[in-house]
Design goal:
238 residues; mainly beta; Immunoglobulin-like; 2 domains; six-stranded mixed β-sheet; six-stranded antiparallel β-sheet; rod-shaped; Ig-like_fold; Ig-like_dom; Ig-like_dom_sf; Ig-like domain-containing protein
Length: 238
């Protein structure tokens, strides 16, 4: 038996579970059974009428096949409308009839993730700042599973001073809302504080969500600081 399925999927999508098997000798197929976390949710028995039977399981919704596709039920099924509860271990179990009554199985794991509805947002800025004035901004990502990793950059370079703590809010179904603060003041860079010089500064917040077998999910938000000369003593955002 060879069991094939994706290792990861996004909420609301569908996945195909394929169980490739071959019977050696004179035995015939008795049944193909599908399990999630050791609980059966689908059964195919070619000698029964009807040949297929479904059992309700949280997070499992099997797509019904048309009459022309029903013969494929013995080797593949499709799960649709995935939710976070669809994550778990799936098993395909194949049994034969007499004289051997053999049973074999294979398992595979599925992780269902929920991506943020949109990219991160930067809030807390004023339209004008004086040179040397403190600048505080907050970056917030929308709820997701797994939670997003947020970081700040200035002109594309990672912020090197110690960042302020990350706030986390847990929602139903495991969704996680993440926020991180940016705090900048006039000071000595060796002490972990960034010095605003006379230049254009692009301050960005980036979020990253690690995915299994896929490229990481990345998005960003930006605000631009236009720092005037010390004589003008103004910082503006745009």
């Amino acid at each position: 038996v060879e069991f094939k399925m994706p290792t990861e999927a996004v909420v609301g999508t569908s996945v195909d579970l394929k169980c490739e098997w071959r019977i050696l000798g004179v035995s015939n197929l008795y049944s193909v059974k599908w399990y999630k976390d050791d609980h059966e949710f689908f059964r195919y028995v070619p000698d029964n009428n009807p040949k297929t039977q479904m059992f309700p399981r949280l997070g499992v919704k099997v797509e019904k096949r048309s009459s022309s596709e029903k013969s494929s039920n013995q080797k593949s099924i499709r799960l649709k409308d995935l939710v976070l509860e669809s994550s778990g271990q799936y098993k395909c179990e194949v049994s034969t009839e007499a004289p051997f009554f053999a049973t074999t199985f294979q398992t595979a794991n599925l992780t269902v993730i929920s991506l943020p509805e949109r990219g991160p947002e930067i809030t807390g800025l004023s339209s004008h700042y004086a040179v040397g004035e403190n600048v505080t901004a907050n970056c917030t990502s929308w709820p997701s599973v797994p939670k997003a990793n947020l970081r700040w950059t200035i002109n594309g370079e990672p912020v090197k001073y110690p960042s302020l703590p990350t706030a986390q809010t847990n929602f139903p179904q495991g969704l996680v809302h993440v926020a991180r603060m940016y705090y900048c003041t006039d000071g000595n860079s060796s002490g972990g504080v960034y010095v605003f010089a006379w230049a254009r500064k692009m301050v960005s917040c980036l979020f990253r969500i690690k995915r299994i077998g896929y490229g990481d999910e990345i998005a960003s938000a930006h605000f631009r600081l236009r720092v005037s000369s010390p004589e003008n003593s103004k910082v503006t955002t745009s």
